[in-house]
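Database export, one record per block. Field names are fixed; values are copied verbatim from the stored entry.
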Amino acid sequence: MSVSALYDTYKRIKTLRTHVIAALPVVILMPHSACNCRCVMCDIWKDNKNLKQLTEQDISGLLTSLKKFGTRQVAMSGGEALLNVNFFRLCEILKKEKIKITLLTTGLSVKRNARQLLLWVDEIIVSLDGDEPLHDAIRNVPGAFDKLREGVQYIKSINPVYRITARTVIHRLNFRNWEAIIKEAKIMGIDQVSFLPADVSSHAFNRQQAWTEPKQHEILIGEKELPELQAVINRILSNEANFTSGFIAESPEKIQQIYQYYAAFYGLTPFPFKKCNAPWVSTVIEADGSVRPCFFHEPIGNIHDSSLASILNNSEAVNFRKGLNMNTNAICVKCVCSLNLSPFAKLNS
């Protein structure tokens, strides 16, 4: 291990022990607040008229903090990041600092932007909600599946080894289609697929207020449907090759936890335990400049008012990390995803 790598590891260990950010391996940016889909499990599109987006000046202003913290990876999320007309210029600014860029996208405009994506983005994660009719219905966009498929296959025709993975939110509307999702991902040429349950209880995804119970149950798998969910999971787990090959990103245990998550809403099981250090190793910067410890916790500042370094290490932020108990915090207990990055994990740019 090089001296610089050792120093980086030291800073990451120091961050976890002191709660003061000395290293920030991962940053999630939301370049554009709007989305080109109208998904049933997300409210981002409902605020499309109130457009907000990150600018070249915003990204350039982050560089001092990113260099200070040794940031190695930026995930472009949203909304739909490709709606930002200066998206590839933002990527260019970051790539000059040898920062790896991952794009999370609906996939609708991947084909149109293929050449630029191959030039400036290191890997793509697409959203996949079902087979063709179900994906289009959940996205509320006719032809969405076809555009996604065309984009993936066009990228692969240019560069077969370019990494494209898929992420699927499993919920009431698509859990019966789960096996078809795996099949379609393989046919499409996806390298790997990842699954997580639907967030129905937080303020994330542009919810001005948490969903009420009637809205929750449009997405929440019903108690009487749980045996059917378990049967689907059993069939998926029986195909060990999908796990040994790594095509399914999660372990069998984590796939089973999707059942546990939904069962917990009915008091049948506890919510799955998640080992997470996201607020210590990453941050989320929204299209309006708001800075969050992760997707689900409240903002702690804005890059238009202070530097990212100042925001992450102000007294409020440090005290938040010191006092955060993942076992008892209501947001963390019901969280659908987690990031647990070891200080020794390598992030190659």
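Remark 1: The longest strand covers residues 164-170.
Remark 2: The chain has 15 helices and nine strands.
End of record.
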